[in-house]
Specification:
The structure is a single chain. By secondary structure, the protein is an all-alpha fold. The protein contains 16 helices and no strands. It has helices spanning 2-18, 34-54, 62-77, 84-93, 96-104, 110-124, 130-137, 142-190, 196-216, 233-243, 261-292, 298-309, 320-341, 349-360, 368-386, 405-438. Helix 3 crosses helix 8, helix 9 (196-216) packs across helix 16 (405-438) and helix 10 crosses helix 15. The longest helix has 49 residues, at 142-190. It is extended.
Length: 454
C-alpha cells in the first residue's frame, strides 16, 4: 500500500510540475450510462424526500440540518489559515445545535440561512463562478436552491484544487528531482522488484550495442577473442531512450519512465506521422522533381495535403493504406494543376500510376524509402541526446527531413527535455544497474564508471 501511495504521489507531482496545462476537471457520469442513470434516480429520490419533509406541517428539518452542517464544513475547507473572522461567523450562523433548537419551535429561517450561504460563497468563489452565484440568487424553490448550492460547491472544490496546484507548481519545479528520487527510493525499499523492467530495458540496450559492435568489426587473426569490448554507459542509456520512440506501448514501459509514458507515446505517434510525410515528399521529389523544381514551397504544399489525411493514424481503425492512396491521388492532381498553370504537359498515366504506387508502398515492411527516413530520424534524435544538456542549439538536420524540420526540432526539444530530466532523477539507479551489468567484478559502492548524465 505504501509503495502504491508513493507511486501515486510521485506521478501526480511529476504531472503538475512538467505539464503546465494539468488541472483537475469536474466530470460526471454520462446521463445515458448505467451509473449516470442510477445516480440520477438516487439523487431525485433524496431531493423529493427532502421536499416532502419540508412541506409537512410542521416542517421536518432534520435532513435539511444535516445538509447545512455539510455545507458549513465545505465552506470552512475553503478558508486560508488566519481567516478567523469569517471562520467564526460561518460556525456561528450555521450552528446546527442552534438550528435544531429553532426547528423545535418551528422558527428556522431556512431562506435566510440559504442566502447567507450564497453570499459567503460569493466571497470565496473564483470569478468564473460569478454567473453561477447569480443563478442561485434567482432561485426561489428552497429544495432546488439547496441542490444547486451543492452543485456550485462541487465546482468550487475543483477551482480550489486547481488554485492549490497553480501555487504548488513553482515549488515542485524547483524541488522535483530530489522529491521524485526520494519517493522512488521509498518505493524500491517497499518493493525490491521495482527496477526489474528497467534492468531488462538496459540489458537489452547493452545486448544491442554488443551486437552492433560485433557487426561493425571482426577480431583479427591471433586476437584474444575472450576480451570484452568496452561499452560506454552513456551510449547504452541513450540507445535505450531511443528505443522508446519505437516502443510497443501495449507493453509496460520501464518503471523509471512510467511518469512520462503518455508523453513518450505521443512523441512516437507524431514522429510516425512525420516519417510518412517525409517519405511522401522524398518520393514525389525523386519521381517528378524536374516538373516542380521551379515551384516555390512545393514541399510545404505536399505537407499540407498529407497532414489532414494522416490525422488519427495512431488509432486502430485508421487505414494507412487508404490514406496513402488518397494522398497519392491528391499529389498527382496538384502536380498536374501546377504543370497546366505553367503551360507544361501533365504527367502521363504511367507516371501517375508509378508515383501513387510508390507512395502506397511506404506502408510495406522494409520499404527502402521508409527505412531510410527512419534511420535519419533516429540519427537526428541520437545526435540530440549526444549534446550536453545545457546546449540549446539543434544538431544539423539530415537530408530528406528539411520539409519537417520545424516539427522535428519541436519534438526533439520535448524529447530531450524528458530524457535529460529522467537522467537527473534516476541517474544513480541507472548507474548501479549499469555497474552490475557492465562491470560485475567491480566492488559495489565505488562509482568508477562513467556517469550517464549527458
Amino acid at each position: 500500500m505504501a509503495a502504491a501511495r508513493n507511486l501515486t504521489d510521485l506521478t501526480l507531482a511529476h504531472e503538475i510540475a512538467v505539464n503546465a496545462n494539468f488541472c483537475i476537471k469536474h466530470e460526471d457520469f454520462p446521463q445515458n450510462s448505467f451509473a449516470g442513470t442510477v445516480k440520477q434516480i438516487v439523487h431525485k429520490a433524496f431531493w423529493d424526500h427532502l421536499e416532502s419533509e419540508l412541506n409537512e406541517d410542521p416542517p421536518e428539518y432534520e435532513h435539511a440540518i444535516k445538509l447545512f452542517d455539510e455545507i458549513k464544513e465545505i465552506l470552512l475547507s475553503f478558508l486560508t489559515p488566519g481567516a478567523n473572522r469569517i471562520h467564526n461567523q460561518i460556525c456561528e450562523v450555521l450552528d446546527t445545535d442552534l438550528i435544531r433548537q429553532q426547528a423545535e419551535h418551528n422558527a428556522v429561517d431556512i431562506h435566510g440561512l440559504a442566502n447567507y450561504i450564497i453570499n459567503t460563497m460569493a466571497k470565496l468563489c473564483a470569478p468564473v463562478r460569478d454567473n453561477d452565484i447569480k443563478q442561485l440568487k434567482a432561485t426561489d424553490n428552497i429544495v432546488e436552491l439547496l441542490r444547486q448550492i451543492f452543485r456550485v460547491l462541487d465546482l468550487m472544490k475543483v477551482d480550489m484544487a486547481n488554485y492549490t496546484i497553480q501555487n504548488l507548481r513553482p515549488y515542485l519545479q524547483r524541488n522535483l528531482v530530489d522529491y521524485e528520487r526520494t519517493k522512488f527510493q521509498e518505493i524500491l525499499e517497499e518493493t525490491p522488484s521495482a527496477l526489474d523492467l528497467t534492468t531488462e530495458w538496459i540489458k537489452e540496450s547493452i545486448e544491442d550495442e554488443l551486437s552492433s559492435i560485433s557487426d561493425e568489426s571482426s577480431s583479427p587473426p591471433g586476437a584474444d577473442s575472450s576480451s570484452k569490448p568496452i561499452i560506454s554507459p552513456t551510449l547504452v542509456l541513450n540507445n535505450g531512450y531511443l528505443k522508446l520512440l519505437q516502443w510497443d506501448y501495449r507493453k509496460t514501459v520501464p518503471e523509471t519512465l512510467i511518469t512520462d509514458e503518455v508523453r513518450l507515446q505521443e512523441l512516437r505517434e507524431k514522429l510516425n506521422q512525420l516519417k510518412i510525410i517525409a517519405c511522401v515528399c522524398l518520393i514525389t521529389n525523386n519521381m517528378v522533381g524536374a516538373a516542380i523544381v521551379d515551384v516555390p514551397d512545393f514541399a510545404d504544399q505536399l505537407k499540407r495535403i498529407s497532414v489532414p489525411l494522416l490525422e488519427g493514424m495512431n488509432k486502430k481503425t485508421f487505414d494507412l493504406k487508404e490514406a496513402l492512396n488518397a494522398i497519392g491521388v491528391q499529389i498527382c492532381s496538384k502536380v498536374n494543376r501546377s504543370l497546366t498553370e505553367r503551360g507544361l504537359p501533365t504527367l502521363n498515366e504511367e507516371m501517375q500510376s508509378n508515383l501513387m504506387g510508390q507512395i502506397a508502398h511506404i506502408v510495406e515492411e522494409n520499404n527502402p524509402v521508409s527505412s531510410l527516413i527512419d534511420k535519419r530520424i533516429q540519427f537526428f534524435m541520437r545526435s540530440l541526446l549526444a549534446l550536453p544538456s545545457f546546449q540549446k542549439c539543434m544538431p544539423t538536420m539530415p537530408g530528406g527531413l528539411s520539409v519537417i524540420q520545424t516539427e522535428m526540432e519541436f519534438i526533439g526539444s520535448q524529447y530531450a527535455s524528458i530524457v535529460n530530466f529522467n537522467k537527473q532523477v534516476y541517474g544513480p539507479f541507472y548507474a548501479n544497474i549499469l555497474r552490475k551489468l557492465l562491470f560485475p567484478e567491480a566492488p559495489m559502492g565505488k562509482a568508477e564508471t562513467e556517469t550517464p548524465t549527458t
